[in-house]
Each structure stands twice: as structure tokens, then as C-alpha cells.
Design brief:
- The chain is mainly alpha-helical.
- It has a single domain, classed as Glycosyltransferase (Alpha/alpha barrel).
- The chain is 50% helix and 5% strand.
- Strands 1-2 form a two-stranded antiparallel sheet. Strands 3-4 form a two-stranded antiparallel sheet.
- Helix 3 (35-49) runs antiparallel to helix 4.
- Bound molecules: 2-acetamido-2-deoxy-beta-D-glucopyranose (NAG) (4 copies).
- Residues 142, 211, 213 line the site of one 2-acetamido-2-deoxy-beta-D-glucopyranose.
- Keywords: Signal.
- It comes from Gymnopus androsaceus JB14.
């Protein structure tokens, strides 16, 4: 749920001046906490979830496999932004354990799970310069690449790892660049989260290596989302069936689909120097941070508020990033967590409150906002 709070970090501040004027109805959209305090708040938030870690399989009691990958991402990004190595050992150990237990980070047969973990591995490389982490990210990228619809696949109507005739075009647009959600031969769904994760990791690998195989992969998949998956309001849709071309209901709108794509576009714009990706990012961001689908006029994200049980929506979130800017949107979420949803250093998944006893999923959802806030305010 935190992902929208976070993608704004990616945007240059000039975008706020242009398109993203802060609605005055938003609650508490500034923040005067100094850097040391923001670091300490993020650190306490991480340290409050860490006792749930089972180091034997890199899982966290109370949340699922893909969500656990995002806890490691938050730790690596904390160190990246704070300039520390506090969580290096726990992150590298967790990634190494999961990668050795589950080939290419795929525990349950989902390419998006694998990509969340591969992204965590990339963040670990970024934070610590750890080459093993980069190798895990690259190996997983190579594996998931087997489930991308290539230009040739779209032309032939076949995909080497699928046992059904694939749709080469849907809604008049090429399906090239779409990434199948599941590796299984009969899995037909192609979704925005798997594809958005692929856009993003490809762009990061391009940035790191300068190898245009990654750049081209990122562009093709970014085009798939651009051409097929953006609704008239500018919000990213969920799934297209890669055989029948049917689409998920238009009401299935989740912050992470827009948020992960925005992160990918930010990196892709950087790698390619192509301003059209920045424009697209700006348009989607402007729509997403004001969407009434997941927030009221106070701006506080309500998606995935779930006091009594974990669910996927609680984990629909994304990360902090390398770019630094003021972020009124993150501050709305930050102040809500600290003022409405807090119980000591634990946070409810209902960011409008009330506070409650610790839950692993509530703490997970808070992590990205807290880590991002390190970077989104000055000094
Ligand atoms: C927002 O800015 C005002 C004016 O500078 C300040 O008094 C207030 O404490 C700030 N809010 C937060 C949550 O930091
Ligand atoms: C670029 O990356 C691709 C995909 O990982 C790899 O197959 C290729 O060998 C790389 N090229 C170079 C020059 O390293
Ligand atoms: C990437 O795309 C560019 C532009 O279309 C092309 O010139 C280049 O050969 C491609 N690189 C790879 C590795 O496919
Ligand atoms: C805060 O957390 C403690 C310990 O988990 C719990 O006993 C208490 O009920 C919580 N407070 C609220 C207001 O829910």
C-alpha cells in the first residue's frame, strides 16, 4: 500500500511545480523532522519487524514470501539512503538463503515473486556493492526473460515456453514486451506488476552494465504497459489474458501497478535520456497521487487497511529510490503513520488509525514510507 507514497520520490521537484500541485485538503503535507530523526524513525520501524525473521528460510512470521522480499529491500534501501551498512549481513544472508532454497527466487511458480526478490538483490548490490547479490538479480532476470513475449513471438503467435497459441495483438496493440505472470506452460495471464518489475530491473541492469540488451528489454516492456495498460484516468490496469485478450475488471486498480511502473520509467528515462518517458511518468504520477480509488480528500492512502489479517493489498507497495526531492505526498503518509496509526514503533496497516498492537503486515506497509522519508525532506 505504500507504493504510491514512494514513487513520488523519483520525481524531479519541477514536476510538482507543473502538474502535481498539492491539494490543500491533504492532511499535514510537510515535515520538519531533521535527518537524524528520520533515520532513527526508519531504523526503529525496521528493528520492530526484524524479530519476526526466521533466518533458516528468510521468511517473516505473519507475511508471505513475496512480501518478505520487500522487507529485505527496505533494509538495503535504508542503508543506501542513510549511508550505513547496518543491515548488510542480514540482507545478504536472507537473499543467499532464499536464492539457494528457491531456484531463481521462484518458490511458488510466480514470476512476480521472483522479480520482487531479484529487485531486493539489486538494491543490495546498490547499497553494498555486493557482486553476489548482482549475480542473483541477473540470473533471475535471465530466467524471467524466458516468459517475455518477444517481437518474434508476437508475430508468430507462439511463445517457446507456453503450450497455447498466444495473442500477438490485443486491443489493436502488439503484445510484445508483456511478461507472463507464471512460468507454467498453460499460464495465460500477463500482468502489469510482473511487467513493471521487469521494466524496472532491466533499466537498473542497463544502468549498471551499459549493456543495451537490458535497455531494449526495458523499453519493449515499458511500451507494452504504455500501449495496453493505462486507463483513461491515467492509472495502470492489472492483467491481460495472453491467449484470449480479456482484461481484468476496470475496478481492479492497485497502487503498486502504477508505482512500480513509475519507478521503472524514472530509471529508464535516466538510462535512455528519452524525455518521453519522463512525460509519461509525470502524467501517471499526477493521476495516481490524486486518485480517489485509494485515498480520500485528506490524501491518506486507504488501500490494504487490514487490522485483523494479512492480505496481498497490504503489501502492494514499492520503494524508496535514488532521487531526492521534497515529497508532500510521502509526508502525508508519514505524518499519518506517526500521528494516527502509531503504537510505539509499530504501525497499523490502517494509516488513518486507530493504532493497534503490532502486526507484521502493518509494519511491512510502513517500511517504505519511513525509509523514503530519509530522502524526501531536507536537511
Ligand atoms: C509543517 O510546517 C509548519 C510550518 O513550518 C510546522 O509548524 C509544522 O510543524 C510542520 N509539520 C510537521 C508535521 O512537521
Ligand atoms: C548483455 O547482457 C545479455 C543478457 O544478460 C548477455 O547475454 C550478453 O552476453 C551481455 N553482453 C555483453 C557484451 O556483456
Ligand atoms: C537495441 O536496440 C537498438 C535500437 O533499436 C539496436 O540498434 C541494438 O542492436 C539493440 N541491441 C540489442 C542487444 O538487441
Ligand atoms: C499497543 O501495543 C501493545 C503491545 O503490542 C498492545 O498491548 C496495546 O493494546 C496496543 N495499543 C493499542 C492502542 O492498540
Amino acid at each position: 500500500m505504500a507504493l504510491l507514497a514512494l514513487f513520488i520520490v523519483l520525481l524531479p521537484s519541477l514536476i510538482f511545480a507543473q502538474d502535481l500541485g498539492v491539494p490543500l485538503t491533504w492532511r499535514d503535507f510537510n515535515n520538519s523532522r531533521l535527518l537524524a530523526e528520520r533515520i532513527s524513525i526508519a531504523e526503529d520501524t525496521i528493528n520492530t519487524i526484524l524479530p519476526q525473521l526466521d533466518a533458516s528460510d528468510a521468511s517473516f512470521n505473519g507475511i508471505g514470501y513475496w512480501q518478505a522480499g520487500n522487507v529485505f529491500s527496505a533494509m538495503a534501501n535504508f542503508d543506501h539512503l542513510a549511508g550505513t551498512t547496518e543491515y548488510e549481513d542480514v540482507v545478504i544472508d536472507g537473499l543467499t538463503t532464499a536464492f539457494s532454497l528457491f531456484t531463481d527466487f521462484d518458490q511458488f511458480g510466480f514470476n512476480d515473486d521472483a522479480m520482487w526478490w531479484a529487485t531486493a538483490a539489486y538494491y543490495a548490490f546498490r547499497a553494498y556493492g555486493n557482486e553476489d547479490a548482482l549475480s542473483m538479480a541477473t540470473a533471475t532476470w535471465t530466467h524471467v526473460s524466458e516468459y517475455v513475449v518477444s517481437v518474434a513471438d508476437a508475430a508468430s503467435g507462439t511463445q517457446p515456453n507456453k503450450d497455447f497459441p498466444i495473442a500477438g495483438t490485443c486491443f489493436g496493440e502488439s503484445m510484445a514486451g508483456g511478461v507472463f505472470w507464471q512460468p507454467t506452460a498453460d499460464g495465460t495471464a500477463i500482468n502489469s506488476i510482473t511487467t513493471g518489475l521487469y521494466v524496472t530491473l532491466s533499466a537498473f541492469l542497463a544502468e549498471t552494465t551499459g549493456n543495451d540488451t537490458y535497455t531494449n528489454a526495458s523499453i519493449l516492456s515499458a511500451q507494452w504497459i504504455q500501449n495496453l495498460q493505462i486507463n483513461p484516468d491515467g492509472i495502470v490496469l492489472d492483467t491481460v489474458d495472453g491467449e484470449a485478450c480479456t482484461r481484468s475488471p476496470s475496478t481492479e486498480l492497485f497502487t503498486y501497478n502504477s508505482g512500480k511502473y513509475l519507478e521503472g520509467l524514472a530509471v529508464l528515462a535516466d538510462v535512455t535520456g528519452d524525455d518521453s518517458w519522463t512525460t509519461l511518468m509525470t502524467d501517471i504520477a499526477a493521476a495516481a497521487i490524486k486518485s480517489t480509488v485509494w485515498e480520500g480528500s485528506d490524501g491518506i492512502i486507504t488501500e490494504g487497511a487490514s487490522p485483523t489479517a494479512n492480505n496481498d493489498a497490504v503489501g502492494f507497495k514499492r520503494y524508496s529510490s535514488e532521487a531526492s526531492t521534497k515529497s508532500p505526498y510521502n509526508d502525508v503518509q508519514y505524518n499519518a503513520l506517526l500521528e494516527l496509526a502509531d503504537n510505539g514503533t509499530s504501525y497499523s496497516s490502517s494509516w488513518e488509525g486507530p493504532p493497534q498492537a503490532f502486526t507484521t503486515w502493518g509494519q511491512l506497509a510502513a517500511l517504505d514510507v519511513m525509509v523514503t522519508a530519509i530522502n524526501t525532506n531536507s536537511p
